[in-house]
Amino acid sequence: MSTSRRVFIFGSTGSIGKKALEVIDNFHEDIEVFGISAYSRIDCLVAQAIKYRVKVVIVPSTQSKELFYEKWTSDNPIPKLLVGSQSLVDIAYDNSYDTVIAAIVGIAGLPSALAAARAGKRILLANKEVLVVAGDLFMQYVSYYKAELIPIDSEHSAIFQCLYGNANSINFKKIENNVRRILLTASGGPFLEYSTDSLQDITPAKACLHPKWSMGRKISVDSSTMMNKGFEVIETYWLFNIPIRKIEVLVHPQSIIHSMVEYIDGSVIAQLSKPDMGIPISYALGFPERTKNEVGFIDFKDLMKLEFYQPDFVKFPCLSLAFDALKLGQAHCIVLNAANEVAVEAFLNDSIKYTSIPKIIEESINWYEKKTPYLLNNLDDILHLDMVSRSFAYKNLSSIMK
């Protein structure tokens, strides 16, 4: 990299946060980790703060702050400790650093990501919900406040690389006329070969065993239902300013091609690599330059075949629901996300069947269709609709409990 950067990691103890620190540690010595935050895993947070000598740490409560002090074992000066979700928003405006890694899971990551956009930061975005529930508002902020946005989930990093490669500037508004379609690839998850009927007996443990990626429990379930891919369709729409009709999903079990862009001249550019988050994270950290990592390289002699299938919208109705919500509008995407989080939580707690997840989501979308449309002019509007949507979904759970 030509210039050094200072990074704040929102959600440093999750899988993305830990991988980002690992990549920085090994290959980005010119990047300083200015601050970190976590909602739980305080032991891990303390260890990270000590190792990277961070200046600021944000914890969720006074109790976690006291625990942090108890666990501090270093002679190094203790970092500045801030408490609560408002601190995440406030720190986004701090001029002491320039880059945010937005890796907080769920809608909890939305306020700080919006603040980072308004602060004009370089944002390395891993949080799907930012674009799913607030894509319009977030992208307005990115444009108006001249923030720099680089996705770090594998599929959108792949699309980004196919569109921009090693370009030094990014313009998300000038690609539609050159692109015929964007092809989002999906592994198909752990139940690709299962029959529709056999999904009735899926347990949380089975749903969390992804064949290619190591992820948290919630996102693993989303991947198994293909809701995760549905979210990525919504993200693609907002992130790359591309019409819905130009976004397609292809099941690709080998997970070697992470997405493709087909241009109007018939050319198709694809991004291939081993399925490891170290590559998109390293790419985003170094952009526009590429840097080494420990993932390794594809041996094309070992690739016996690369398969592609159309997704089964009957077996995976969550994917269809995501397309429907996107066509209906931003409010429906908020309802989709809220109902999915409620349903997945209930499934992981063994309260509902796996096949009940899409039923709860569909009922929630149908419920909103009968309501007067909500205005979504600001964050408060978005959070209010999210709240009432969750309330409906929770009430709806009782009718389908095991």
The CATH superfamily name of the largest domain is NAD(P)-binding Rossmann-like Domain
User: How many structural domains can be distinguished in the coordinates?
Assistant: 3
The tally of helices reads 15
| Spatial strand sequence of the major β-sheet | 4-3-2-1-5-6-7
Report low-confidence residues grouped into runs of 5 or more: none
CATH class of the largest domain: Alpha Beta
The quaternary state of the protein chains shown equals single chain
Name the structural class: alpha/beta
The helix-strand sequence is: EHEHEHEHEHEHEHEHHHEEEHHHHH
Measured by DSSP, the beta-strand proportion falls in: 5-15%
Q: If classified by CATH, what would the architecture of the largest domain be?
A: 3-Layer(aba) Sandwich
The radius of gyration over CA amounts to 21 Å
Q: Outline, from the CA principal axes?
A: globular
- Span from first to last CA? 54 Å
Percent of residues in helices: 40-55%
Number of DSSP strand runs: 11
Query: CATH topology of the largest domain, what is it called?
Result: Rossmann fold
Largest sheet: 7 strands, parallel
**Average residue-wise pLDDT:** 92
